[in-house]
Amino acid sequence: MSTAEAQIRLTAVNKTYGAHAVLEECNLSIQAGEFVVVVGRSGSGKSTLLNLIGGLDRPTAGVVELLGQSLAGLTEDELSRVRCRRLGFVFQFFNLIPTLTVQENVRLPMALNGASKAQGIRRADLLLRELGLDECGSRFPEELSGGEQQRVAIARALSHRPNIVLADEPTGNLDLETAEEVLALLEQTCRRHGATLVMATHSREVLGTADRVFTIRAARIHEEPP
Ligand SMILES: Nc1ncnc2c1ncn2[C@@H]1O[C@H](COP(=O)(O)OP(=O)(O)O)[C@@H](O)[C@H]1O
Ligand SMILES: [Mg+2]
Question: Whose CA is nearest to atom 9 of ligand 1?
Answer without folding.
Answer: 48
